[in-house]
Specification:
- The complex is a heterodimer of chains A (about 450) and B (about 250).
- In chain A, about 20% of the residues lie in helices and about 35% in strands.
- Chain A has about 450 residues and is an alpha/beta fold.
- Chain A has a domain at about 5-280.
- In chain A, helix 2 (about 30-45) runs antiparallel to helix 6, helix 7 (about 385-395) packs across helix 8 and helix 8 (about 400-415) runs antiparallel to helix 9.
- Residues about 445 of chain A have low confidence and may be disordered.
- Chain B has about 250 residues and is of the alpha/beta class.
- Chain B is built from 9 helices and 12 strands.
- Chain B has helices at about 40-50, 70-75, 95-110, 115-130, 150-160, 180-190, 205-210, 230-240, 240-250; strands spanning about 1-10, 15-25, 30-35, 55-60, 65, 80-85, 90-95, 140, 165-170, 195-200, 215-220, 225-230.
- Chain B has a 6-stranded mixed β-sheet, with helices on both faces. In chain B, strands 2-1-4-5 form a 4-stranded antiparallel β-sheet, with helices on one face. In chain B, strands 7-8 form a two-stranded antiparallel ribbon.
- In chain B, a hairpin with a 2-residue loop joins strand 4 and strand 5 (about 65).
- The radius of gyration of chain B is 18 Å and the shape is globular.
- The two termini of chain B are about 35 Å apart.
- Classes of the chains: A alpha/beta (about 450), B alpha/beta (about 250).
- The interface between A and B is medium-sized, with 24 and 30 residues.
Chain lengths: ~450, ~250
């Protein structure tokens, strides 16, 4: 390539800076994987707007930041502050990642029972990483530069294994805590979750910050559900208002397995979540509820890709978005039904509530159906608060601002109520209410 | 308490109320009757402060205040309540939380302390029982999936909890069977008091058998064509609206 644009140059600089921190050593297979991902990264280059998957998502705000892969914490963590963030429901089953690194002193894993929850770093170091060999089995070398980058650089994260026939009732939590660093930091967490045949578990994932630091969380998760395994997976992205967040979640479901997910993306200045679902065996079910909120200067991107490769599976995706001020959101919901995937049942909906004229949503449901005996539907809506509903509330004495908030919370209610971990639902609800109360401002991309 | 003088209202440039004069003193119940499209519901909405109505002439005073200068929520806080003909469904908005927020907004405006959860709940349950409103509906989303009768009862429940100075009931009888009508009317009658006025908007005389008005006004073509005692309602039931329209045209 002879012509290099200034943007591409900045991207190259960002990547090179990160690659300087490439870990060495570890098992041979891992080193081979890193090398494959590094080659992939070089081939892929920068995600660009002319690529369909990045058409509405500019990465330019990311490129202006001097992200340091080895950024050091400004101070020691304030334990009282951390305690105030914890969920009672996950006491004893909580793994904490502090600025991307497993923090044993902050974690609490005494009640995990037969379930193995640990740091990926430890698993790889202790050579007991047999299970860890499944790392990369879904993600491959990476399908965009950031997931490839994660594969080259990831050093820590969680390795969770729910053994066959085990029912883990207490939710296991992965708490991603970010605290201020001397330079803006970048972290590359990597998770592997194995729910073995006929096992059942609940998983909570939270992204929270102490203060309002600037950082880039670039995460890849791989979740494998065995035959008839069940997983409830609830996720709250409540990153710092200055943060960048990119997570790619790969999910593979064997025959008869069930996955129920809830995602709320309420924080970060710039965030993108890629959820990739693959059915590997018949009779599997995947249900996902999602909520996102974008205020001034904020970008929230949700990319779904559900792949019905085998017959008789069911997928349900229902996402709701609230956009305020000059907020921007992207919803890309792709459902593929292969020729052999007869009796598939796929439903996808996306509803958006626009609170301002300056907000922008790009919503794109895509159904690609090659089988003929299927039930598939999709629906998308973009609307404003209903004038009759506002009048009704005001005629009962509520101020216009209160009436708007009440209707917004009502719009989000279906997704909030899908959280079954009460503490997570309460926190999501409180955060949404707080942001609606504060108005569209408050999200500042890296100032 | 409510005094309307020369009120003219237009919607999108088209006149729908052509000069209304009406006095409703405290303690009285007035009925507004009229054929479909006469402007009855528009009058109710204009009084409650719904947007989209342009007042081109006249004034409305409520307890000595210029009502038309107030936002809808200000009117509610000063004691005006509109029981709507088509109560709006609010999916995701909990009926009980909504009513509590509403009550406390009004109490705060009156300078009263917030009502605590226990006394609120007690009063709410009692009121619901009187109105034969299934308690489960209190935990559901406001009006969402309610039957026509349940929606009307829910309106009267709100009215009973908010204790307005002036209650406007817009076609509260529509969609109610006779038993439901009695229950709703009992609920309304229980709120009659010397400090409170009511304006009952209805197409049919039927409701007025149960909520007996002090005065009846016939509204047609955006004007009050005739006013009288409760006997006027019976006459309308017998003879229809045609004769009044003819007399007015003559």
């Amino acid at each position: 390539m002879s012509l290099v644009s200034p943007v591409a140059e900045r991207f190259r600089a960002l990547v090179e800076r990160q690659l300087a921190a490439r870990p060495a050593g570890g098992p041979v297979w891992l080193e081979a994987q890193r090398s494959a991902a590094a080659r992939r990264l070089a081939e892929l280059g920068m995600p660009e707007r002319r690529q369909e998957a990045w058409r509405y998502t500019s990465i330019e705000p990311l490129l202006g930041q001097p992200f340091d892969p080895a950024a050091e914490a400004e101070s020691r963590p304030d334990l009282d502050q951390i305690r105030s963030l914890l969920l009672a429901e996950t006491e004893g089953t909580r793994l904490v990642l502090l600025n991307g690194r497993h923090a044993p002193a902050l974690s609490s894993l005494g009640r995990a029972g037969a379930v193995s929850v640990g740091s990926l770093r430890d698993a790889l170091r202790e050579g007991s990483g047999e299970r860890a060999r499944l790392l990369g089995s879904l993600a491959g070398p990476g399908e965009h530069a950031f997931s490839a980058l994660n594969t080259v650089l990831a050093q820590d994260g969680a390795l969770i294994r729910i053994p066959e026939e085990t029912a883990q009732e207490q939710p296991i939590e992965l708490l991603h805590l970010s605290m201020p660093t001397l330079q803006p930091g970048v972290v590359q967490p990597r998770h592997l979750v194995l729910v073995e045949p006929r096992a059942r578990a609940r998983l909570v994932e939270r992204f929270v910050a102490l203060g309002e630091p600037l950082y880039f969380n670039n995460l890849v998760s791989e979740i494998l559900l065995g035959d008839s395994a069940e997983l409830e997976h609830e996720r709250l992205q409540a990153e710092s208002p200055h943060a960048f967040h990119l997570s790619v979640v790969h999910l593979a479901q064997a025959a008869g397995s069930r996955y129920r997910g809830v995602v709320a993306a309420l924080g970060a200045a710039w965030s993108r979540t890629d959820l990739k679902v693959r059915f590997d065996g018949p009779g599997a079910e995947c249900a996902l509820d999602g909520l996102y909120l974008a205020g001034d200067g904020q970008l929230v991107d949700m990319h779904l890709d559900v792949h019905h490769a085998v017959p008789g599976c069911t997928s349900r995706q229902s996402f709701r978005g609230i956009l305020d001020g000059r907020g921007r959101a992207v919803f890309d919901g792709r459902v593929r039904v292969e020729r052999q995937a007869q009796k598939s049942d796929a439903r996808l909906t996306n509803a958006n509530l626009m609170l301002s004229r300056s907000a922008e949503i790009d919503t794109k449901p895509q159904l690609e159906i090659f089988a003929d005996d299927v039930q598939c539907s999709h629906g998308t809506s973009v609307g404003q608060l209903d004038a009759d509903a506002l009048f009704y509330l005001r005629s009962r004495g509520l101020s216009l601002a209160d009436a708007r908030r009440m209707l917004c919370m009502g719009f989000a209610r279906e997704v909030l109520d899908a959280f079954r971990v009460g503490g997570l639902r309460d926190r999501s609800e409180a955060l949404l209410a707080h942001r609606l109360e504060r108005g569209p401002q408050g999200q500042r991309p890296g100032d | 308490m409510l005094s309307i003088r020369g009120l003219k209202v237009a919607v999108e440039g088209k006149e729908i109320l052509g000069g209304i004069d009406l006095e409703v003193p405290a303690g009285e119940v007035h009925a507004i009757m009229g054929p479909n499209g006469s402007g009855k519901s528009s009058l109710a909405y204009v009084l409650a402060g719904r947007e989209g109505y342009e007042v081109t002439a006249g004034e409305v005073s409520f307890d000595g205040l210029d009502l038309l200068g107030l936002a809808a929520e200000e009117r509610a806080r000063r004691g005006l309540f509109l029981a709507m003909q088509y109560p709006v469904e609010l999916p995701g908005v909990n009926n009980m939380s909504f009513l509590k927020a509403s009550l406390n907004a009004i109490r705060q405006a009156r300078g009263e302390p917030e009502m605590g959860a226990p006394s609120f709940l007690k009063q709410l349950r009692e009121t619901a029982r009187h109105l034969k409103l299934d308690e489960k509906l209190l935990q559901r989303s406001v009006n969402a999936g309610f039957s026509g009768g349940e929606k009307k009862r829910n309106e009267i429940l709100q009215m009973a909890m908010l204790e307005p100075r002036l209650a406007i009931l817009d076609e509260t009888d529509s969609g109610l069977d006779i038993d439901a009508l009695r229950t709703v009317a009992d609920g309304v009658n229980a709120l009659r008091s010397p400090e409170r006025a009511m304006l009952v908007v209805t197409h049919y005389q039927r409701l007025l058998d149960y909520i007996v008005p002090d005065r009846v006004h016939v509204l047609a073509g955006g004007r009050i064509l005739r006013s009288g005692g409760k006997a006027l309602a019976l006459e309308l039931e017998e003879r229809g609206y045609g004769w009044i329209l003819e007399e007015a045209a003559a």
